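Work package 3, deliverable 3.1, input record:
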Amino acid sequence: MKILSMRHLRYFDALARHGHFGRAAEDCAISQPALSTQIRDLEEHLGSQLIERGSRQARLTHLGEEFAARARDILRAVDELEEFVRARSQPVLGRLRIGIIPTVAPYLLPDLITALQDRYAGIELRPREAVTQKLVEDLQEGRLDAAILALPLTESGITGMPLFEEEFVLVRPAEEAHHPVPSAEGLRAMRLLLLEEGHCFRDQAIAFCAPAQTPPRDLIEGSSLSTLVQMVSAGIGVTLVPEMALPIETRSARVALQRLAQPRPSRVIGMVWRNSTPLADQMRDVGMLVREIMQDRPRA
Amino acid sequence: MKILSMRHLRYFDALARHGHFGRAAEDCAISQPALSTQIRDLEEHLGSQLIERGSRQARLTHLGEEFAARARDILRAVDELEEFVRARSQPVLGRLRIGIIPTVAPYLLPDLITALQDRYAGIELRPREAVTQKLVEDLQEGRLDAAILALPLTESGITGMPLFEEEFVLVRPAEEAHHPVPSAEGLRAMRLLLLEEGHCFRDQAIAFCAPAQTPPRDLIEGSSLSTLVQMVSAGIGVTLVPEMALPIETRSARVALQRLAQPRPSRVIGMVWRNSTPLADQMRDVGMLVREIMQDRPRA
DNA sequence: TAAAAATACTCCATAGGTATTTTAT
DNA sequence: ATAAAATACCTATGGAGTATTTTTA
């Protein structure tokens, strides 16, 4: 015998409880000789006698008593462990570590958290806001279960689903409300306020108004959409804002909104996860929740 | 797989620690496929996925993390259990529950306790004083490890060794010091003070002076040798006392001692234990200690 | 003699090995 | 193309069964 097995503990426990090889064997649903040999092997392995064998009854030695008590503790822990796993293995989501890019998080999270807590009672939510690159890293390293970000994503080992598409809307000072809607070229000539490096939305905006890799003429950076909108309302320049951010960011700002001409700029927001995760079904379910949230919102 | 085995826990623990099937298998000194199948069986048994299999690495699921933590606790408990048994399996006597008859206990116990504590460091001593019948019952029921009493003993399942032989000495009032030593028949005519029913020494004394089943003429009972000697010194009658009790019981009593004529009455004190006890070696050792104690005493 | 455990042996389930395939990067 | 794990298949260990012997009360 190489290692002390669970069987040894279970058999010994039964023997300790019954004090009788025959009845203990019956309890274990094995034959008496099978139990005898296992107990003998156990004692041999330990190098100590645990049972005092009388022909009338099998009595525990002092060491055997102590061994039995500890063995019982271990067996109880093992039973609890199995019970624990079964209790957790329902198709529910016990914990969700979800990352969301900064240009989506503030506008989606409140509704998403509410919906998730409705859908998965007792869920432990760990939302995290970070730029795409960080999210992908965390996902690949196993620190996140899912990420909501702009598609497409070329990383390997990661799959996902699109959630919704949203347009970019031009935000300009309130006094320009009646200026004509600029074309992409016209936009390039304006003073454009953008998010700092790292935000995918920055790249998307640049890609729209400067398709020939020529960066916009006059570019000023801000660290959040909120800041950008405030700067616009101060007359510093114009900016693009994703549709879903409008209700919140432009509510109290003195700015004018202009839907751009066709082809309108837009992006697809999707949810992704490791394609090796066992939570794929739940991830799709979470994705469906997001789609429902977005469909319930009035389009601007 | 019927039951969750220790092997499963050990293998899973290794896998959790290494996060890599190949290296974990190496750690367990088995092949990678062997580990893979065991882990698969474990997951099947539990009905839940514990490992998220990527081609780069094996990552634990959330459930897997919790399982690993609990499994580690269990494995540690098992290792401690083995360690515990090995620590206790030295050929020492950890606990000795020893019963001694009342006509021996007070005269042997002090020296015996000292000797045992010298011989077995840290021994837990549980001496118990009771008459032979009680001792034998306790021995057979496993409540005692050994008993010191008068031989022979006919009980089955019990074996032992003789320790020493001791004579019975006649104790009579001090004023009778110069009276002639009585024969057994003469003794029968005297007023004999004896221990109450149950004490083997009572039976032995009666057997000596009344071989023909005729009880002594005038018989008064006391509950201890000490009481009997005090009664003798008060002139109430005579009594027989085992040799080893003399130094203590007659030290301050005004009594005369008379060694009886051949064949002198005597008894053999021995130590007995269940012949199924695994402590037989130690019991013999304890017996040898008693013999040494008695040999060191000056014969009266 | 009777009851209980140990022994002898046989069988088979399964853990583990090697070789190979599959999968994902 | 490479690395890792899964699969296929075979072997052998050992756990469990039946029949029997030994032991002891």
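The domain at 95-164+267-295 of chain A is CATH 3.40.190.10 (D-Maltodextrin-Binding Protein; domain 2).
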